Amino acid sequence: MNSITPITSTNHPFYTMEGWRGGTRSLPQEHDYWIDQIEGTLPPGLEGTLFRNGPGLLDRGGVSFAHPFDGDGMICAFTFVEGRVHFRNRHVRTEGYRAEEAANKILYRGVFGTQKPGGWLANLLDTRIKNIANTQVIYWGNKLLALWEAALPHRLDAQTLDTMGLDDLDGLLKPKDTFAAHPRIDPQGQRLVNFGIQPGPKTQIHLYEFDLAGKLASQQTFAIPGFAFIHDFALTPTYAIFFQNPVALNPIPYLLGLRGAAQCIRFNPQEPTRIWLMPRQGGTPHCLTMPACFVFHHANAYEEGSQITIDSIAYSHFPAPQPAMDFRDVNFADLPPSQLWRIQINLEDDSVRPDCLDPRCCEFPTLHPHWVGQPYRYVYMAAGHDPVENAPLQALLRRDLITGEEQLWSFAPHGFVSEPVFVPKGLQADKPIWAAPGKEADGWILQVVYDASDEKSHLLIFDAAQITAGPVARLSLRHHIPYGLHGTFTPKVFLQP
Length: 497
What we know:
This protein has helices at about 15-20, 95-105, 120-125, 250-255; strands at about 30-35, 35-40, 50-55, 60, 65, 70-80, 85-90, 135-140, 145, 155, 165, 185, 190-200, 200-210, 215-225, 235, 240-245, 245-250, 265, 275-280, 285-290, 295-305, 305-315, 340-345, 350-360, 360-365, 380-385, 395-400, 405-410, 415, 420-425, 445-450, 455-465, 475, 485-490. It has about 500 residues and is mainly β. It has one domain (about 15-490). The strands form nine sheets. Strands 2, 30, 31, 32, 33 and 34 form a six-stranded antiparallel β-sheet that branches. The protein has a five-stranded antiparallel β-sheet with strand order 1-7-6-3-35, with no helix packed on it. A four-stranded antiparallel β-sheet has the order 8-9-10-11, with no helix packed on it. The longest helix is centred in the first third of the chain and has 9 residues, at about 95-105. About 45% of the residues are buried. Keywords: Iron, Metal-binding, Oxidoreductase.
């Protein structure tokens, strides 16, 4: 079997650290306006709302958070209606956000290394968790939910983005439960599928499926041995697929107030990565192994007879946050590159074959929502400008998984990208996003880009079939948006025309 190994990086002048750091600034202001600076032509028929989530505040009381993943969540809404686009952003006013805003200082330790002022004594044995609601946002069952994988979701007003409070999903979740930030939509079963994790000597994975109205359709619990750090999962009609990365947690430095929890995770390259096939209709999970790697995100998975194919973004090892290091001073060349891998499983002999499809660094894969869980051809990703050097994400990449042909549009040297979002053509407001007619490449790619040359963010729209033709429209904001995490599109409009 192939093993996942890092590649050597060299310096190339297609970005500057000063330029990249511009996207790591907080955006404390909240805005509400029609975007009036548009180059190109907005696609006719494109109506609905792009919701995005990510850390909006990266400091408090003049003290920087140690890692952007510790930042408080901020929701952005781009509303397309009647040939115009409206922008609004609101911070998710969690209980911890409100407390720190009133005190104007950091009151909670962050999972990725942020400590309260006062040294280790001030942090000793303080295991309180601030729900930062900063990872994903999704509209489902007439609810807009901001998600963070270590706690309950927050419900928001879809029209104003005001925070309504924690949502236990009609009593399904208890106060200490978790609800992951990577729900998957099954277009064939017309369900939203998500999970929650309870760690321990055996990790419990709770698998939830919801119907179109947001009502619980099924619930199962699986137990797997050992500690599990799982951020995402893949979905097929038969299985929910989880990768158990070969990591261990030593909580002592965390309890002693010396490190954040994520800084206490250690990768073991001698252990395999375990692939768990959880049957969605119930039954015993099936475990397979592959050479050690670390996976945050999956692109897609599908079944063909006895073979299961999984396309994932894999790292050679866990990119652990380092104590006492300012994340704005990161050396990208020292980090393991994130690469697109195809993992093929043969259930007849339980063999696993992993293959690297491209050495270029990439992340945040997406595809046409109708093809989730099905054999598909095109995957879209945020990618590096250079084909081999590990560097900030500066390009939009489409890969043809049948021919291997790639289309790339780079924003280097000044542009830095977030996750692309696929919006099918022909959407109707009263039908799900995956129900649009057309072929797999019939859609638009919505890409938020931070431009260091004007220190502002821009929303670019690409024809999904012609990435190399460049954007068909560029919408310029009046300010920047800090680098975000995930987003979703709904054909519904929540503004009055």
